[in-house]
Amino acid sequence: MTEPDAERIAEDAVRIERLLPGPVERVWTWLTDPDLRRQWLAGGPMDLRDGGAVELRFRHAELSPDEAPVPERYRDMHAHGHVLHGRVTVCEPPHRLAFTWGGDGDAASEVGFELSPQGDRVRLLLVHRRLRRDDMVSVASGWHAHLAILRERLRDAPPPGFWTLHSALEAHYRDLLAP
Predict the structure, then answer these.
(1) Cα 143 to the chain's mean position, in Å?
(2) Chain centre distance of CA 137
(3) What are the tens digits of pLDDT across the range 156-167?
């Protein structure tokens, strides 16, 4: 892999760190603006206040010109999109953002972003907590692929093929994150 791996930091959590083109305010906008976020992760409204509603509308087919076959278990999501709901748990613009992933309460996981300046670049630290063991490989692979697309979008460069990258990463993370 050309970027640092996601790492398991607890039985239920993964961490990914990236250096991205700055400044921090620009990266924050790509995390929070639905039209920009749609180009690397998922569109949808995000009420940027503690307790605010989050709706992520995934349309993987629109992330890149990837013509790779879609893995069978993701075909329906790829063809029809997928909507995920959550709630903002931390909002400290432009440095910290966290929200539940997939609902409210104990059943939801939580993803958090921290942004800090590193010269003319931005250190993005992503931690996804409260993951089920069965989801760890998919989540690590997904974030790794989505952040690779974000990096290229911030560089005004063509993004990598999402499904090509995701499939290679799932095989990689199956070995790396195996219990």
Answers:
(1) 4
(2) 13
(3) 999 999 989 998
| pLDDT at 77 exceeding the cut of 70 | yes
Q: Which of 104, 1, 114 has its CA nearest to residue 54?
A: 104
Both tokens of 55, joined, read 């709706």
HSE, CB side, 13 Å, CA atoms: give it for residue 150: 28
Q: Give the C-alpha separation, 18 to 121, whole Å.
A: 10
33-72, pLDDT tens digit by residue? 999 999 999 999 999 999 999 999 999 888 888 677 888 8
Is pTM beyond 0.90? Reply is yes
Could you read off the pLDDT of 100-154 as tens digits, one per residue? 998 667 779 999 999 999 999 999 999 999 999 889 999 999 999 999 999 999 9
Q: What is the third-level CATH fold of 7-176?
A: Alpha-D-Glucose-1,6-Bisphosphate; Chain A, domain 4 (3.30.530)
* Ramachandran assignment for 140, one of left (phi > 0), alpha (psi -120 to 50 degrees), beta (any other): alpha
- 64, 71, 122, 148 from 157: Cα distances, Å: 11, 26, 17, 11
Domain boundaries, the chain: 7-176
Cα angle: 47, vertex 48, 54; to 5 degrees: 45
